[in-house]
Structures are given as structure tokens and as C-alpha cells.
Request: fold
Amino acid sequence: MRKRFLALMVILSLLVTLATSCGGVSVDTDVAPLKGASSLPEAVVATQKPAAIPEETPAGYELAAATSALALYVTEDGMRIAVLDRNAGRLWTSAVDGTTLSRKPNKLWSANITSPFTFSYQAVDNTKGNTKTGNATNEVTAAKVTRLTDGVSIHYTMRKLRLELTMELRLDGGSLVACIPEDELVEGEKNYFVSIELLPFLGATVDTDEGYYLYPNGPGELYYFKDEALRQNALKTYTIPYYSAQTVNIGAIEQNDEEHTEIQAMLPAYGIKVGDAGLVAMVEDGAPYTALTISPSGVSVTCNRIFNSFVYRKSYGVYGSSVSIAGGSSVFPLAVLLDKERYAGDRVVRYTFLSKDEADYSGMANVVRQRYLDTGLLPSTPVAGVAPTVLDLLGGITEETLFFETYKKLTTFAQSEEIVTDLKTAGVDSLVINLKGWADGGLTASPQKAKAANKLGGYRGLKSLATLCAEQKIPLYLHANYTDIYAGSGSYNLNTDAARDPNNYMYTNGDETHFLQGPHVALHKQSELLAYLQDLPLAGLTFARLGTLVYSDHYNKNPCMADRTAAAWVKMLNTTADAFGSVAVEGGNGYVLTEASLLRDVPEKSVSVLFGDETVPFYHMIVHGSVYYTGTQNNLFYDTKAQTLKMIEYGYLPYYELTYAPSKELRNTAYSTLFSCNYADWRDSIVTTSQVFSGQLAALYGCYMTGHEAVAEDVVCVTYSNGAQVYINYRDTAYEANSVRVEAESYVVVTKGG
Reply:
């Protein structure tokens, strides 16, 4: 099974632990603070192999380490850090000179902009949720700078607050690796850390600078530096958690399912471009507990800034009985508490510096992709150069009537066989089939004890379909949901299976019909489904939400924090891939990229941000060529021409979600958003679209997407690692330049050499 699927789709690689470590050997842990370049031992300089001693040391700084690409400088008191990008000729500093700002900052912000870190904290005995903020400039009472073989370690003591932390800074070729080691945080005597912002002003800019910030809003989004008067909307700081919101809200999850209003930051990376220089920052340890903050100039201080915030604790309310007020009922928190146990682990960020033609979002994507390939976060072998058409076939669903629920049959296994045979006969040679609602109870059924629905053909009918697909070399997946528990779906014990908040209350929605399953339970129960399916020639399972949702389960008998939840999801994917040969997943969070053969529902739009200027395929440029992915269902397009061109631009596979039954059968169900889904209505579209994507475009799916740029208004050029270029013209008139002509609302593939 494994060989059959890999020959068609993708070769999976094993999950490899990130190579980055913040450990290291000190040259001398008792050495005095740095005293200039001359105090560096010869062994340190030799290890780094600099092309030459860096240019003149910036005033007030001392050389800490150097490579052929970078030089790291630190002030004697350890309160300012600077990195010289020798290729770009730019000095990146951790502090902002207040005299360069258009408005003089107040006393607090004058301290903030010169701090190598800021933080929030709370008193150990606080029950009111009063979190305070601090900065290094005002609070650090002592800083010990220690030389390392490739950088420095700076230990900061905040005596009044009884807090201490260490920041390690190391050079690795063209990168600065910054780490806050877990084992050197000191707290708990008087205060707890709530969050720490690392180098919050590295890459700060003013409105007159030329460039932009790149941040992972869905595909990726750019914020161009510009005068406040030119911004269309009010000023606001955005905090974007990587992977998932830090606090679980099932109501928000349900709303996002329908409206897609939540920002999806699928990869923990961002970029900065200033003139001909740039950097890309990648969180390499601690991403589930990290959020990205973007603040435009004018919010508190007149400089733009983008940085990571490491979350160590969350506050939560403890609630008592409801209180009757004026005939109504209200619930008040008895206290607001802070997690006593901090979210453990080192926090590591790698800053890679770019110059000239590489200092743009394409160059940033190339750096991230290569780093992920080098560390095993992306498969080392590209996918096959084919473009399969992905079909979701919806088997059954429940419908609520006045007094009870009824099961509605939409696509039997025999009808699925009919669809597969019909499309193969019509010339659709490359297909991927995913069955949804295939089990008793339909789409919301419990997956771990699920049995193939008798009304759809039972186990025998499912085996017949799987056998047909195997003979036709068509990967067949079964959809499974191990995160959501729906009331009445069976096979659950809420007391032991539901995930819980810090109060030990179950995560649920307003009417208590929707819960989340504990990750430890999902791991345990997955084996039952695999045992039931083990004799079927399947390609694998498609897991709902595992690539979009990470949460902490505070169940006191088996707690599972967010990092362990992500690890549990990876283990589930790995177990399935071992059993069947491959696995598919909804969403594309970074932790699933090594195991998944197919990513589902990868967004092609950025969620509205007040200061966002342009959506770019940053995410797609990183993963394309390493894994297949789908976006919006073709049968739900509102503008077929424009959205098909967007598929080509972003590298999506054709994707349809269909039923054998007429579309009207879904009107009174929870799946009414699938308003046009009848196979007979979409059959010709599938055949035509498959022909388009199996032509010149097919070979590009096994290539990396190395360049993306707007060559004219509404005209885009995408470059691939094999030298091919695809020009996409969204205009209603033809585009012609440099011997390339693209007709209106069309595209052209230009192979290497013309």
C-alpha cells in the first residue's frame, strides 16, 4: 500500500526533532563583561571564520562574535544588542534612538524602546487578575555578560521583582539564534512571569522607511510603512497567536467554521524588509506558546514594530453559583487566578538576514523552506509531478426534525464506485477520494468506534469501494474527527473524555451540545478505528482540525498542555501513515508538515486586518513542492474564472465536495452551506478542470515555488525551481511584455529557456 501511494503522490519522511538548541559551552562563566574586540580569545574568532575583522565597531558596543556574514555587538552592560549584516551593510539594533522619532516618547516608552526585552508579570498572591508590565531599562538591577564560543549569554536580575532570566545570543552563519532557556528563569518568590517579549524593537522602523512587514495572516500579508495620514483605518496593535488561540472558545470556533473570521497563523515566522536589507524570524522552540505582535507607528510611539511574545501563563476566572439580579441571573468571578505552573520549555527564535534581491517576501519564503527542509520539518523528497483532483464524497448526515433526528443517505458506497468509474472512463486519470459521513451516525458520528453505515452499504460495500480504488490506483481516505464531541453522537463519556479548562470545567458551547476531546483520549481511542479498518486497502485517514487547532487540556487526571497536544496530533498522523501509507489533515499548521501527504482547506485569503495592504502566498511558497494542498471547493466558487486563476497562482489542487443525491437534500441540515454539490451537475466541470491541471501545470507540483511578484497591475509571475514561470493575468484585457503574451483572464506557462 505504501509503495503504491508514494509512487502516485508523495514520499513521506519521518519526523525529525528541530536541530536548533540553545545549549552551549561558556568560554568562561566567571569572566568580566566584554571589554572590546581585543578581549575575544583567538579560538573564538577562529571558530567563526570571519572574512575579516568587521568594519568599525559601533560607538558604545563591543564585538561579541563574528562570521563571514554577520557581526554581533553587545554593550558592556548587556542592555543593547546590535547585529551587522555585512552583505547588506546594515546595522540592526535592539534599541531605538528616541531623537529620531517624529514625536518624543513619554518616560515609559523612552524606557521601552531601549530595552532588549519587555515582559508582563503578576504577584504570586494576586487574585484580581492584575497583570503588570515591565521593561529591562527600568527593572534590571544587574546584568552578567558571559562569552560563549559563538556569542554571548546575558543573565538579567530584577531584584525588586525577584525575577531573573537569561538571553543567549549566538551566530550561526547568516543567522542570529536567540534563546530564553527554561532552566534559567527565576520566579515564584514574589512574582510570576506571564509573558516575555524578546528583542521587541529589533527591526523597528519609521514611516519614512521604505519597506514592509510580512506576517502569517493566512497565506501571508504585507504591511507597508507609510505616513499615518495615508492609512485607511484606525491604528491598532494586533496580537496573533501561532497555530491557535491561547484561550479556548468553542463559540468562536463554530463561528470561524462558518465565517472564517479568525486569523490563521499556520507557521511561526515573520519578515522585515527595509530598503535593500531584510530579515526573517522563525520560532524554532516554543511556538505553541508564542504570539506575534504587530504595531504600526502611532500606537503609543511613532515607530513600527513586530516581535514575538512568549506566553508563560494565562489568567482565568473562578466562578461560583449564579446570583439573581432584578429577575435575571448573573455569574461573577470569585477570583481571577494565574496558572501556577508555567508553560515549560526553551523559547528559541532564529533571525536570518537577507540582502539585495533576496530581501523580499520571496527570499524570506525560500529561507524558511530551506530551514524546514534542513531540520526535517518538510519532507526531503518533493511530491510527484502530477495534479490529482480531490473529491470529497459525503455519505450520510443527520437531519433534525420537529421531534427527533433522522439519518439522511446522500452517497452510498456503490454510488461512490459509480462516480469513480465514470470519471476514469471520462479521462480523469489522477484522483484522490475522501469519504465524509461514511459511518453510522453520519458526519458527526464518533470515529473511534465507528462502523461503516449499513444504509450506505456496510463494511462489505466499503471494502468493495476500497478494492476498486486500489485497483485503479486511486488513494481512498476516510474522514475522522478526533477533536469534536457532539451531544448524542455516542461512544463518549464526557466526564473522562472531554477536555477541560483550568477550572476543571469542560470546554463547551452555550447550549452544551459541542465539546472538545482530550488529546490523551484521542490517542488511546484511535487504535480502535485502525483495528476495524486494517484489512481495507485504504490510502489513509483525513483528520479534521488537527492542522488548525491546538489547545491545552487541564483535566487533573491527565493534563495535556498545548505543546503536548501538538505532539499528540503528530503521533496520530504518524501512526496512521505507518498503518496505511499516508495521511491527510485539515489545515496546515507547521507541526503537521512532515507527516501529511495532503493538506485540506488551506486559506487563500487573509482575514481583514486594519492596516494590512497586500496578500501574498508566503505559506504556499514554503510548502509547495513538498506537500499537496487544497483550498476552497471548486463547486462553491463565486467567480469561477478569477478563483481558478488564483488556484494556479497559489498552487492548489482542484477540489470538489459532492453528493450523489440532489443538492436540495442538504437544505435542512447543519451542512446547508454546501449549496451546490450534486455530482451530475459538476461532472463536466471536474473533467474539464482535471484536463487543465494535468497539462503543463502538472509538472510544477513537484517543484518549489521560488519567486512571486506582480509584474504589472493585476498580472503576476510565479517562478519555480525548474526555471519555469507562470504568468497569471487577472485583467479583462491582454498583457504583453518581454515576448510574453497572456490573454485576458488567462495564464501562460513559460518553460526554462523560453
